[in-house]
Structure formats: structure tokens, C-alpha cells
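Do me a favour: review this protein, sequence plus C-alpha cells, and tell me how the chain folds. Record follows.
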Amino acid sequence: MVSKISSILAMLVAIVVASSGQGHAVEAVRSDIPVAYGLLLDGKDAVYGEFVCHIHVRCKLIDNQKAHLQLSVTIESTEWLSGEVSVQCGEPDCSFLSGHSSTRLEGAAQGKNSRQFELYAGSGAATTNDLVYRTRPSIGRIFFLFGNR
């Protein structure tokens, strides 16, 4: 999995660097942002690519109905890279650490333009029962690289 992660990160950097010289018609308003992504799920082929996403509009990065695989991001601010990330994995079902299929894309200052999220088996809120906490195994990761902020 480490070699897959390294190759996905190298590919994402190459995509964003290659596209960084391209101009966008609405760049002065900053209403769009290039998003490179990679999705690694245990036992499945890596899925990666790049989209130009519009601010405040849900950007469907992966929408594979046959494999029941969906990944989307909604960016609320390019200055702080804040928004929401949603994922549907099909079989096996997956969720973020919170147990939900969506999580916040929290902003960061100082020009940090990459994010990584761990995916866990199952869904629903984190399970607690009689002071016993059951952990869920990690089954994958999502990587994002945002360009031209």
C-alpha cells in the first residue's frame, strides 16, 4: 500500500504542476479551483484524476454507478480551502472516522494545498456500548491536491 500511496502522490503532484500554467477564464474572481484526487481502497484498483471545481457547487469527482463508488467535494472558500467531502464505497461500505459518509474539508493557512482522509469499514456513528469502544479497520485513503489558489 505504501508504494501505491507514493505513486498516487507523485501522479497528483505531476497533474497539478502540469496544469498550473493553464489560465482560467474566471481566475480573477477565483470562482473555480483545480482539484487532483486519488482514492485507494483495499482490494480495488486506485482511482485518480483531476477536475476544475466551482466554488459552492458539488463537484462529482467519481460517479461509478456500476461499482457503487462515488466521491464528491464542495469547496466553500479557495482562500482557506474549506468545504465538505462525501464518499460512497459500495461493498464494503465505508465512512470517515466519524462514521458518516461525509466530513468537513477544514481550511488551513500558509498555502497548504493538500489533504488526506482515512476511510474505515462500515458506516454509522462510532459504536459505543457499555463503555466498550469497537474500532473499525482502515480500508483506504482519499488524497486531494488543490491548485492555483
Residues 2-19 form the longest helix (18 residues). The chain has one domain: 2-20+29-146.
